[in-house]
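Now for one specimen:
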Amino acid sequence: MTEGRTTGAARAFELLEPLVRAATVRVHAPPDGYETPGGDAYGPTWGSGFFVAPGWILTCAHVVGEGGAAVRLTGREVGITFQSGSYAGNEAATGTVTGRVECVLPERLDERRPGRRALWDLPDLALVRVLAPVSHACVWLTDRSRPRFDEVAYFGCTEELGAPEITGRTTRLRGTAGNGAAIRLGDDDEIDPGMSGGPVVDLARGEVVGVVKARRNTGGGGLAVSVVQLRTLPTAGRGQTGLYRRVMQAHDLHHYDQHLSDLNTRRTWTDTHGELPAPEGGPYGGRARLTPGERTTLCGLLAELPPPGSSEVVRALVEAARGEEPDPHPAAPLSWRDGLGLLYDPPGGAGEAAAMLRYATDVSVAEYREPPTPGADEELWDWTRATAERLWRPLRRELGERHERGLAERDRRRRASAVRSVHGPARAAGGPLPGTSVLLEVWAHGWEDVFDWRVSVLAGPARPGRVTPVDSAVRISPSRLPEALRAPLAEAFRRCDTHEAAALLEVAVEPELFGLAVDEWAVAGGVPLGVQRPVVLRHPVGGAPPDAAVRWARVQAGPLLDERADCIRGRPRSPSAQWLAGLADNTVPVHCRAAGQEPTLGSLHAVREAGYGVVVSRRPPPDPGASCAPFHRGLREELADAGRAHMLPLRLQALRARAYGADPDAYWAAGAALVWDDPARALPEDEPLQGDL
């Protein structure tokens, strides 16, 4: 250990080292079976990793890419050597087992990897599933969305003495990189080959905050990946739990079971948290914070509940418990546990314990994505009420009243849901897009061929005007736009998607950019956005035309009439204002020519000024001689079948999915886009700065 450390950090290292070493593994070539060999039987060390939950190992993608791997990493088998039996101490036996790479981050590393000695793209993570039931230790992962820049220890496999060995060293966090995806490690000591993929532990709080990624070429220190990046694991399909939530649920239940177990005398992570040297005020203790045992129990009780229906559900409960909107920039909270990580250091000097107990109370009466195990929600409330007994009497009374209000509200929602189920699906009755949506705004730089963009979460009618920023940038070339927006859009979708449906993507651009093929971009899984979710176009914010609200209400009621706005039997035309004003309010103007060229560009502006909020446009096919008749014929049938406008975003998504699945009857819809200017979904009125002059 490096000399000169404070007594507190030195003592914390002594307490935590056995626990971290027991959970850290050596990654190498796969064995031929599940035997436990002696010696270095499987060739050189590729890197390190660590158990984050029973049967699950976290490491770096470049570690599992060692050894001449094929192009595709997911599904590759690797060897894992770990401590089995005793969880602490040097007397533990060593075991070797085969693991299979379940996924890598970012997903594009499966198809495209950097050259030799090049730095792999962030977050450079891999999740490995062990292929045999084995007994092993697990680390305690932080629930904080951002690391604290304090003393840390990093661990990994080295061969300093000629044989593979798990070792640990100390340093200090020096900052972040990659928009918070990476953590800078100080240069107190050198990161040896083989330590990549090992854990980085916050010594003050006793929790793993990062994964060792790289060392500097010119000395000590390097980079680690924040474990919060695990939240960027591929999202689940509708009705599925998702890999991140599965792993974190197993993590919390493991430590909860260890904390409650009377079957052994091994020191647990919870025990060690209670023994860590406390800085001034203490990370635990007192009435302001939950004790380590209380925190472990709360995480375990939350893990026994079904996961939340969406990230926004978690954020709303955090805001109610914290008293202010949580930081919008960290990766979206996907589990109930992630919500706890947003409740540290609440505003106004309020105690963390009080905020967490308010949150737990609200979770106990929340709507889950499926019915909970009988009694699980009541057990959480009983624990919350009992824990509050050691706190302030006014808080106990407040929590009781909060619980009663929550029960009444949940009963009201369930009665309303039962009524809707009798009269038909809620989507058909109230429209397909009532909740939060993802907003992408793109601005052109006049005559320059570059764009500014901004990605936000739009709260919708439930909270008018509420816009939460995700990311933005300026002066991006058209060719770089899809790649630049991949990560911000993926983060926004994680915040808005629910287990029932993928969130709407609203693309707000000037009409000359209506040809931007956003629906064809692939953000995750290689599947186009327009196949995965409804995608609509919006006009940038501006004064709504006088007839907009009337026309919107009428077209939503149906039936729908289509009218060619920019062509007559394939020949271009420019519609007059008088002609547009005379059309029925339930008309959907249709455009089949290039949006950025006349007469279509002028027509798109004209229909906007005439108050039409539902408009269809199209990116023309590559063949300029192709007839537009199949497009108009297919769209007319689609509008007649839909009857009312409120289902058009979902119906267009279904058409794109059919075409993607090679259904010739849907090919006519290629390039179709829906302008959807819902007056109830107000857009932000400001534009980003135009970059440096």
The chain is about 30% helix and 20% strand.
